[in-house]
Amino acid sequence: MGRPNVGKSTLFNRLTGTRDALVADYPGLTRDRLYGFCRSDLGAAVIIDTGGLSGDQDEMSVLMARQVDLAVAEADFVVFLLEASGMTAADEAIAALLRRSGKKVVIAVNKAEGLPAELTAAEFWSLGMGEPMVISAARGDRVNDLLRSVLAQLSSGTVESEIDTGKPVDAGGIRIAVVGRPNVGKSTLINRFIGEERLVATDQAGTTRDSIYVPFESNDKQYVLIDTAGIRRRAKIKESVEKFSIVKALQAIEEADAVMVLLDAHEGIADQDVSLIGLVLERGRAMTVGVNKWDGLSSSDRAALRREIERKLPFLDFVERHNISARHGSNIYDLLESAARAAECAWREMPTSKMTQVLTDAVAEHPPPLVRGRRIKLSYAHQGGRNPPVVVVHGNQTERLPISYRRYLINRFRKVFRLSGTPIRLELVSSRNPYAGKRNRLTPRQMKSRQRIRGRTKP
Fold first, then answer.
1. What Cα–Cα distance (Å) separates residue 253 from each residue in 164, 229, 321, 458?
2. Nearest to 342 by CA among 170, 171, 173, 176
3. Residues 122-154: pLDDT tens digits?
4. Beta bridge partners of 243
5. Read out DSSP for 294-345?
6. Judging by beta carbons within 10 Å of its beta carbon (0-12, 13-18, 19+), is residue 207 exposed, middle or buried?
7. How far is CA 301 from CA 332, 363, 367, in A?
8. Domains of the chain, CATH where assigned
9. Measured between alpha carbons, how far is 180 from 176 in angstroms, rounded to an integer?
């Protein structure tokens, strides 16, 4: 912990060996608690990145300070990060807060690249919190020494070997990314699921900037919910920080097993909602849709919204939709179970024999159309991938198969294998013509004889 822009997120990334924390030369970038793992021969340590304590009393600063208080309360040890350029009144206020907490604390003086350690640390002895450790989180200077000191104080032994700051151990469970436009209630929904103020949630759009991974359990099933920054039209993105936040959100979609798309019932279905859903489908991710703030609508507004959804999202007939209230918790677990089912469908394994039988039955019931007087032949099918399911169909002239018939095949496989909530990709493979590309090997006499038979020459 520390005041804004002292390098907390940079140190977090260094300790965990990841780039999970969003880093920029911009104060107040981190707002929520971000958790990561660091392994050593003393065991695994959980690292918590926190927002900067500015001392301001505006709504956002107060909520961020609340997140820091919660992080300190659950921590066994606090790394108090300061900047080598000098101590400020905000640093002294944070030191007083830490003394009252009763937690074990080590002072780390960051951004000391090229500076003499003893001279740099001298000013910070006045805090009376032990020996300051001079580090560079960006370059990694003496970060291992810092971690070794912390872990040694938390254990009975001492650490002799280098600390392994490799990739963290990922939390198990179904990964579900919660996405939507700014201020649709993504953070509020995750807080409601876990029953605590895990994420900063306000009415201000753009509150979430990083992608926050939140493990939790429901009905004996493990989940990892990923809170993401709100995604809006490129023309409205002005701050470079927001651009990086959206990149992190897109990465979360890529890593997820399923995606919850939240819509705002009061705002209706905007073009950006349709574009975002199209992006999720393009990446091949399983999906469920939650229409949030439903409880605040009148019966006539609800009917109008249903008609708008049917009109603007007709291509989502295979995706389950739930009307929810993230604030009050209405129907949110139906939405969660729907996402889990969609994720299971995305990873489902389909036997080749059954897939071929489905194809045969589909062709028998509705044969492919004629192309240049010849019927397109579809021979057999097999699975070519999962998440999303890929159906590979072999035959002749498959590249001429109309789009309507391709949709017919996709719907047939979806119905038989009950693949709800996940897009299906259809790949068509045509058998190679063994005579294609071969030159005519007839002799001149044979050619003349054939032409005479066809009436092209006189006898």
1. 29, 11, 19, 73
2. 176
3. 888 888 888 889 998 888 888 888 888 888 887
4. none
5. GGG--HHHHHHHHHHHHHH-GGGTTS-EEE-BTTTTBTHHHHHHHHHHHHHH
6. buried
7. 21, 44, 45
8. 8-154 (3.40.50.300), 174-346 (3.40.50.300), 352-430 (3.30.300.20)
9. 13
pLDDT score at 391: 94
Q: Which residues of the chain have pLDDT under 50?
A: 24-28, 156-170, 200-209, 234-243
326 CB-near residues (< 8 Å, 6+ apart): 185, 188, 189, 192, 262, 292, 293, 332
Q: What is the reported pLDDT for 456? A: 54
Helices then strands, each counted (H, E), the chain: 13, 16
Give the number of other CB atoms < 10 A from CB of residue 134: 24
Q: Which residue has the tokens 């201000």?
A: 204
Residue (of 186, 177, 176) closest to 206 by Cα position = 186
Residue for token pair 């040694």: 152
Residue pair 177/219 in contact by the 8 Å Cβ criterion:
no
> pLDDT digit string (tens) for 107-121?
999 988 878 888 888
- Find out whether 304 and 269 touch, Cβ atoms under 8 Å: no
Which amino acid does the sequence have at 174? I
CB 276 within 8 A of CB 181: yes
Rounded Cα–Cα distance for residues 351 and 237 (Å): 46
- For residue 274, count CB atoms less than 10 angstroms from its CB and return exposed for 0-12, middle for 13-18, buried for 19 or more: middle
Q: How far apart are CA 178 and CA 266, in angstroms?
A: 19
Cα–Cα distance, 407 to 41 (Å, whole number): 55
Contact of 324 with 184, CB cutoff 8 Å: no
Place of tokens 């990446």: 283
Residue pair 42/151 in contact by the 8 Å Cβ criterion? yes
* Token digits of residue 106: 């080590």
Q: Which residues pair with 177 in a beta bridge?
A: 226, 259
